[in-house]
Structure formats: structure tokens, C-alpha cells
Design goal:
This is HNH endonuclease. Keywords: Endonuclease, Hydrolase, Nuclease. This protein has 249 residues and is mainly α. It contains 13 helices and two strands. The chain has helices spanning 8-20, 31-40, 48-51, 59-71, 85-96, 98-114, 116-119, 138-148, 151-163, 177-181, 197-200, 215-222, 233-248; strands spanning 190-193, 210-213.
Length: 249
């Protein structure tokens, strides 16, 4: 069995370490590298067989990965290492959205330290049909999906919408389940976090943090593309508008 490739979760943590070190790599003797090696081996991602492989996320491999980040940054003037596409995408994400990605890394570290991310079971949609996950990693998506599927939270959101006098329909495309399916669709809608949890924080989710979406728009909000993830309902509405405009020409 070969050592598994680095996941987005692991690359997120390694990238944060390099960014905090002003885009310089770190040596094996650095305590931060040793601590990250231990943290990576504690992530609830890999199989016990992988964890038992010699050299799996060793101090040396972590140090080499920090070198990948440094030498493949656009401002590095020396020779770049062969880092692979996932690492390159993570470098671009940190370069373009440094503060946001650092928040994601901090949320991941805190979730591991508290044990929360170990307790959440795997979710069906944390990896899409192409085998990809969000640039922020599988574990943060897992936590978000688990919260969105909380039936009590969904019930409270539906109650809030109805009390306000608004129709219960998708906030992106206006799809109304009751209108389309009659009695079968009455009272059905899915809920989605408008802001990623690593930005809004790990506090209790407020109802105003949630949007009501149809299944299609919900999936599109979560669907990952290289270097991009987690669209807001507003961004998805704009995407639909642009697509419709392009189709009309």
C-alpha cells in the first residue's frame, strides 16, 4: 500500500503554517513541523492501514510539503519543486484569499482539538460525484452538512419563514415544492448556511444564518470546483442570471 496523497484538509493546515511563516519553508527540527505531523496523523480521514505505513505524514514529509508551498508561490524566484495540482490550487487559494483560508485552518485545528470533528459521522455529500471535496477540506464540509441536516434546525427555520408571511420556496430559483408536488411537497425545503461555518464561527447556528433552498440549488451551492467552493445563494443567483443571459445570445 502506498502512502495516500495529501488531502485538502492536510494541505490547508500545511499552507497555513507556511503563510504564518511569511511564505518560507520550515525545517524538520522546527517544533511547528513536529506538531503538525502529529496533528495530521490524528485527522479522522485515513484508514488505520495508512496510518501504520512508515513515513506517513512524518516530520520529513511535512517539511518537504512546506518547501512545495514556498517554491511554487508566484513570488518565489528560485526553482520550483514538483508539488502536484492539489498543492498548487491550495497555494492559489491562500494567495487570493489569505484571511479566509487562515480562518478555515484555525476552525479545522479547533475542531480537531475539541474532538468535535472526530464525533461527526461521515456525510453522503462531503465528497462529490467526481471524488472531489471543497478547497477547505472534507472535515469542515462534514460539520456543515451535519448541521444543515439537523431536523430541529430545519423546522425552526421553516417556522420563522412562515411567521414572517413569506412563501416557503427556494431563495435562489423560487422553486416551490408545494406548488410543484401538491400535498407531497407541502412544508418541504432544505436549509443552507449562507456563510461558511469557519467564517461565522463554531457558535450555535442562528436562523438568520440559514437560507431556504431547493435540492438542486443546495447542491450547486456546495459543489466544488478546482480552487473554489461554497457559493452563497446570492452568488448562485448571479451565476443563473449569467448563464441565462449567455444562453439567450
Amino acid at each position: 500500500m502506498r502512502i495516500p496523497a495529501w488531502t485538502e484538509d492536510e494541505l490547508l493546515l500545511a499552507g497555513a503554517l507556511v503563510v504564518k511563516n511569511t511564505w518560507r519553508d520550515l525545517r524538520m527540527s522546527d517544533q511547528k513541523v513536529q506538531e503538525l505531523s502529529e496533528l495530521l496523523r490524528s485527522l479522522p480521514i485515513h484508514t488505520p492501514e495508512a496510518l501504520g505505513l512508515p513515513g506517513f505524514r512524518s516530520v520529513g514529509s511535512v517539511s518537504l510539503k512546506t518547501t512545495d508551498f514556498m517554491t511554487n508561490h508566484r513570488l518565489y524566484s528560485g526553482r520550483a519543486t514538483n508539488c502536484g495540482k492539489p498543492t498548487q490550487l491550495m497555494i492559489e487559494a491562500f494567495t487570493d484569499r489569505e484571511a479566509e483560508m487562515l480562518q478555515a485552518a484555525q476552525a479545522l485545528e479547533e475542531g480537531i482539538a475539541s474532538g468535535e470533528l472526530h464525533r461527526i459521522p461521515r456525510q453522503p455529500d462531503e465528497i462529490d460525484d467526481r471524488g472531489s471535496t471543497a478547497i477547505e477540506g472534507r472535515l469542515l464540509v462534514r460539520r456543515a452538512l451535519a448541521r444543515e441536516r439537523d431536523p430541529k434546525l430545519r423546522t425552526r427555520k421553516i417556522r420563522q419563514v412562515r411567521r414572517s408571511g413569506r412563501p416557503l420556496r427556494c431563495e435562489v430559483c423560487d422553486f416551490d415544492f408545494a406548488r410543484a408536488y401538491g400535498e407531497l411537497g407541502e412544508g418541504y425545503i432544505e436549509v443552507h448556511h449562507v456563510t461558511p461555518l469557519y467564517i461565522s464561527g463554531t457558535r450555535e447556528t442562528k436562523l438568520d444564518d440559514l437560507a431556504c433552498l431547493c435540492a438542486n440549488c443546495h447542491r450547486m451551492c456546495h459543489r466544488s470546483r478546482p480552487g473554489e467552493s461554497w457559493r452563497t445563494p446570492t452568488a448562485l443567483r448571479e451565476q443563473i442570471r449569467k448563464s441565462a443571459k449567455a444562453a439567450a445570445h
